[in-house]
Amino acid sequence: MASTSSQISARAQARKRTQEALAQRRRRDEENAKYLDTFFEAVERESVIDEETERKIVRLRADAEEKKRALAAAKRDALAGIKNNGENIGTIAEWTGMSAKETRAVLGHKRHEKETASAPAASAAHDKAAPDPELVGAAAS
């Protein structure tokens, strides 16, 4: 009889150990789930910060480019004024510390802008002169 009760006791102890192990596993799983939630929330917040940073960088770059364009126009106008006063490219380059090539490039942007500004106007004039193909087709039917 002692062996039967010891077997029952051994089974009860084994069940108890198994239940304790399962309970510990459940606690670990719950803790791990909380840690994972915390981790993924941090990753999400980090992603939001990265996106916000990228938006700010884009905005800063756009602002800087706008300011640089304004300064480039001021530089072009200043050099054009000197040139219009009769100074040559070599003299302007010497005075500004730029090479003659750089001086021409700064002055050349003005011509390039005039060409690109007149191109849309010419295109718009061409568009006005040419009839709309859809309207022509509709009128013919």
Automatic annotation (TrEMBL):
Q: What start-end ranges are recorded for coiled-coil regions in this protein?
A: 50-77
Task: State the residue spans of region: Disordered.
Answer: 1-29, 107-141
Q: Which UniProt keywords apply?
A: Coiled coil
Q: Where is the composition biased (Polar residues)?
A: 1-10
Q: What is this protein called?
A: Uncharacterized protein
